[in-house]
User: Fold this.
Amino acid sequence: MRDELVWWKTAVFYQVYPRSYLDTTGNGIGDLQGIKQKIPYLKQTLGIDAIWISPFYPSPMMDFGYDVSDYTDVDPIFGSLEDFDQLLSTAHQVGIRVILDMVPNHSSDQHAWFLESCSSLENPKRDWYVWSDPKPNGSPPNNWLSVFGGSAWELDLTTAQYYLHSFLKEQPDLNWRNPDVQEAMFEIVRFWLERGVDGFRIDVAHYLMKDPALRDNPLNPSGRKSIHKPLGEYDTQQHLYDKGHPDIHQVYRDFRHLLDDYSINQPRMSMGEIHIFEWKEWSSYYGKQLDEIHLPLNFSLLGAGWEADEIRVLVEELEQNLPEGAWPNYVLGNHDDRRILSRYGADQARTAAMLLLTLRGTPIIYYGDEIGMADVDIPPEKRLDPAGIRQSIQARDPNRTPMQWLDAPWAGFSDPETEDLWLPQANNYREINVEKQLENPRSMLSLYQALISIRKTHPVLQSGSYQTIPDAPPGCYLYLRESQQQRILVALNFTAVDCLIESPNVKKGKILLSTYCDRNNSLSGSCNLRPYEGILILL
Ligand code: NOJ
Assistant:
């Protein structure tokens, strides 16, 4: 396969949050066998090419799997290594690639490495984590903050030193400046590559390397938010020293070598979770020679308002800032952010689906968005996300609720006899579920199916160029996808009123799809877009 068409560029990705996909054991928590059972849905019904599975490794679940206590096994809640092998082979049989979540910045505080590291100052694993002496007055070594609230340092009473935790105190940061740590992590990567996985999504990829002198972060005088979320304590600092030190690029060059070594017969790939909103710095993670992360994840749209010009500008900025030869990608939802439908509204979520699946670059769909799942209001006594409970960031339980498959007890997510689910299910499951939406040619699911299918049957949407159509009517966003063989115009109305598109381009086109799923005809002049309507026009 020519590199420019390597599979991860043309693939539609889908994120599975394993706790919430399908429970086959009746414990109210999804599992690997559940994902395996839904491979036909993903392949035949939706047309997905690759799944990224959030962590399923043994974990005390303080951060629901992002606190790993053993990187080369499966938590019994989710099944076993054998279940994983079965899932992988079932997915591969139908051509679905499988991406694992790699959590290299921190382990669980229950990981054997950390337990050893804590045991004494002399322990050989002491330097595997980031330890530092208190200041003379006993306070933490510097002013760094945890993303989840409070100081990023926790005092270990036994050894009288502080350890660093960029997230929960139960998630101590590993010391990537120690070559043994890198080697141990790469050995884990090899373990999964040998089993046949197609790549990794790297958790907080830009956090691995910190300032070796542990300097204080300067304050953030403008109060400008550093991540697209409500301002919090974390945003009171400029995070100059607690992450993203330039030494990180060597780590990703080494990591890329490792992946490349395993890519002769099976091209592997990496996606990096990188919350950086300064384009040049973000794009540096592709590597100067495109020799680092294949797809630094692009979260710019996650923080955008529902405004045509704002979204257009973000797309144009991405296109302008991509290094030569680098491949773009778009994320509209994930397990950390409010769902598309809850951010924008039900009609808007349909337009957003068309946007995601017609832009130039790899689209990544979050499970449940394809049926228009909304954030679920979780009563205080049922809230589980420690990050939310500790009040530092918006709770993430509402966007992690169980998938809605059927109009049946527990919406087909779990056995009817199951006592309770790990998180409450949405009340709307009788209407909003896969089975019901398959019967309705205008449902959200039918729209996603059509968009994915058109993307596959029109290669211009996978690999054609992107160009903004200038002078769109206010509130509309128009762009052209073009290859030598085909041209498709995408016209999106972001407003609640009709909007007339008179671009000369539209004159002789054929409508391939409307987000209303109700028209399929030729155009002979202008085109009236209904509220929030998006259309694809084959020119
Ligand atoms: C990013 C993950 O997406 C999030 O869910 C997790 O809490 C943090 N990293 C810490 O691992």
Observations:
- The radius of gyration is 23 Å.
- The first helix runs from residue 7 to 10.
- The chain has three domains: 3-104+179-450, 112-164, 465-538.
